[in-house]
Each structure stands twice: as C-alpha cells, then as structure tokens.
C-alpha cells in the first residue's frame, strides 16, 4: 500500500467505463458528467489524495463489438484502445480548462498526445498532485481496461481500485432482470469467481487477488460518490478483498 498519511485512502486508481462519457448531444461527449467528475477529483487532490484514472472506450468502440461485424479481434481491440486515448485527451482538455493538472501516460508513444509510460514518471506526477490519465489499455489485444486499471493500480501501489459502474455494487444476480436480486456489501475475490458473478473479467480479478489490491464496485452516477467514499468514509458499494 502507498504510505497513508491522513486520509483513509491516499492514492487511488479510479476506473470509469466509457459508457459514462456517452452523450446524445452533438459533441458526443457528456460534458456535464466530466465536469462533475473533475470537480470531485480536484477537491480530492487538494486534500492530498493522489489520483490515477483509467477511462474505458466503450462509448466509442469495443473490440468484441467490432469482431461481431467481421473484423479481426486483434485489430478491433486496437481500435478499442485508441478510443481510450480519445477519451483521455478529452478529459485532459476539460481538466486543463478547470485548472486541474493532469498528464496522459500510455503504453505506446503517440507523439504530442500521450507520454510513454514510465513508472518513475507516473509516481513523480502523482506526488506532484497531478492526476495521471492512463490510456491505450495495456497496449495488447484481448484485455480490457479493467485489466489495465488493475495493472496500473498495482504498479502505483494504490490503496484501492475504485470501479465506477452504473449499478450500486455487486448483486446476487442482474438487478435489472431479477427484482429479488440482493446486493453484497463485502465479498472475497474467490467468491466472485465461485459464484460466477459477472463484475469484471477473471484476468483482472486474479491479478487483483494475487497482489491484494482491494476493489470497490460502486455507482458512479451519484454526483457526490467520490466524496462519500473518500472523504466521508461511507459504506457504499461492494468491497472486494482477500
Ligand atoms: N482493450 C484492449 N486491451 C487493453 C484494454 C482495452 O484490447 O489492454 C480494448 C478492447 O477492445 C476493449 C476496448 O479497448 O473493448 C475498450 O475498453 P473497455 O471495453 O474495457 O472499455 P469500457 O467497457 O470500460 O468502456
């Protein structure tokens, strides 16, 4: 764990599904969601919390969807990963406008857009209260941004992996289909695997479990959720530990 000072969690890895950036307006980007997200992050940073952020690309392209229309999976996944670069750049731009310092790191060099990942540079940025935006996933196909969030969370020794979703946490079955589904407030990594709860891919889960990276699955639609989790220490969502 990153050395704690005053907050419960001092260094976080936040992952947000690209779905949250989806918008029906002409720009194609949900500016209101991002504005709120960045306002929350700004305050957290001000209070000494270091933030690494992984944003998915599902609002633009997912490899599995492109594969269904006949594209090769490896190429489809590259398109998916490029979507995360577009999202990171949009966030960077809005952060700049809102005076929230950030840097974009990627596993691949895209000149003028993102810096090449180097752990020391990432740590230095975090220590300088700069939000680190990780994009282009792990740079290889057949993975998801959940996997890259776990890898980056482990590498930066994040205190927790915050997985922002559209549901309140992990349920016994899909709450949109089964009205009697109940939420779990706490789970072990192995429960998720044994109960076949479809929250994130097994690769990410196994990685998190091997490196004891706690995961909190929570509803990112609540506009004050990061404050509730990080500043008010509220028990929300589902906490997954060993
Ligand atoms: N992807 C990949 N390798 C990675 C991370 C992501 O190939 O290491 C691709 C994959 O095609 C994925 C897409 O990038 O569908 C977008 O990521 P993801 O589906 O995780 O986004 P989200 O659903 O969280 O918005």
From TrEMBL:
Annotated catalysed reactions: UMP + ATP = UDP + ADP
Record protein name field: Uridylate kinase
Name of the coding gene: pyrH
Residues of the Aspartate/glutamate/uridylate kinase domain: 10-219
Recorded GO CC terms: cytosol
Family to which this protein belongs: Belongs to the UMP kinase family.
Statement: the UniProt record of this protein carries the keyword DNA repair: no
Pathway: Pyrimidine metabolism; CTP biosynthesis via de novo pathway; UDP from UMP (UMPK route): step 1/1
Pfam families named among the record's database cross-references: AA_kinase (PF00696)
Binding-site positions, UMP: 57, 77, 138-145
Gene3D superfamilies from the UniProt entry: Acetylglutamate kinase-like
Localisation: Cytoplasm
EC number, UniProt record: 2.7.4.22
Biological role: Catalyzes the reversible phosphorylation of UMP to UDP.
GO biological process: 'de novo' CTP biosynthetic process; UDP biosynthetic process
Keywords in alphabetical order: ATP-binding, Cytoplasm, Kinase, Nucleotide-binding, Pyrimidine biosynthesis, Transferase
Subunit structure: Homohexamer.
Activity: how regulated: Inhibited by UTP.
Biological classification of the source: Bacteria, Pseudomonadati, Pseudomonadota, Gammaproteobacteria, Enterobacterales
Organism: Buchnera aphidicola (Cinara strobi)
